[in-house]
Amino acid sequence: MAELRSRRSNLAVPGSNPRFLEKAKGLPADQVFLDLEDACAPLAKPGARKNIVAALNEGGWGEKIRTVRVNDWTTEWTFQDVIEVVGGAGANLDCIMLPKVQDAGQVQALDMLLTQIEKANGLEVGKIGIEAQIETAQGLINVNQIAFASPRIETIIYGPADFMASINMKSLVVGALHPDYPGDPFHYILMQILMAARARGVQAIDGPFLQVRDVPAFEEVAKRSAMLGFDGKWVLHPGQIDAANEIYAPSQEDYDHAELILDAYEWATSEAGGKKGSAMLGDEMIDEASRKMALVIAGKGRAAGMGRTSSFTPPED
Ligand code: GLV
Ligand code: MG
Questions:
Q1: Which domain of life is it from (predicted)?
Q2: Which residue has the least CA distance to atom 3 on ligand 1?
């Protein structure tokens, strides 16, 4: 988990649009995913594969994680998507995103196909990671097996639009709370995905918010999954990127405090600090569990490239 790169913002880019592909290179998203699935019309898919291979091989993506979303295994397109994209640009690609994953077998099928393509193209076996999108009732009831289906899995992603359709939800505003329902109808789904991701030690990613001009509403939805522990969210529009980067990283204050807890606890447990298992940091009592919580926040902050603005000085007695 600690080795995985930050994915606070995951920018969707339709593979059928060379202008958008070019523009995406300069945007400050942690990850881009070049789409061959639902943002690409069936007639445009063959051309989109070629655009994507060219855009990946041209480079200019900086530090961004480069992912391609292929079509799901129930279509006639998946195998060709994977063969063309990984065969043509595998050296310049990090992950394949598999949508509408129903069970572990679908992940294993992609894993085997990737292994063959990697071997055939002289790539290191296991180079290409897998991002699994959970967007159906069946996918959700199998999410635990899906998370453990392959060592290539790097993220489990919530796909709210398809998911809402799959369970017959009576709302068209993706991810927004509904005035007729008192609670958060998405809480159960988000938590199931988060538990599977954490049990497996991979990232949990929230899906899209379609009202792209309403940034405050995006922020409200993003804060709900960020608060639970999700690592990032899709962004469909450049205007959502800064909000996601901010919401899925700790605040500067929380980050500084987490680093302080780590230093203070390390000192408290040391010989010089008195080999204490619990200690006071200001008015707060800290122990081993505080250290674990602080590691999470510090890890997210470090992955997002944050720097400390304070340091720890051992108390004098
Ligand atoms: C994303 O693919 C979604 O269906 O929400
Ligand atoms: Mg979808």
A1: Bacteria
A2: 159
